[in-house]
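Memo to structure team: turn this sequence into structure tokens by end of day. - J.P.
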Amino acid sequence: QVQLVESGGGLVQAGGSLRLSCAPSGSIFRLDDMAWYRQAPGKQRELVASVTGGGTTNYVDSVKGRFAISRDNVKNTVYLQMNSLKPEDTAVYYCKANIRHSYYSTWQYYWGQGTQVTVSS
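Reply from structure team:
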């Protein structure tokens, strides 16, 4: 069973920076598109940023110019560099990845357990 392990959340003042990381635990066969979502209290989960297997990135308008998603294909890790953080960025951030566990398995999306990001004003 594949699990996505996230790290890097925490408490930061407005204007500060955090870097989130996410990687599957254990070995996998292939890793395709990866993404970061977030969910604030009382709100729906929203896509923050995504990166395809080929490296094409996409961002929600509210984080463009402040956040950067990247991936390390050797470490099978996706990162979310968050700069100029605002109180409205406060949320639980979730990693999502399209993974093929083994040669014989099909592609399947997995979610991380979430990491809390809190931005104080």
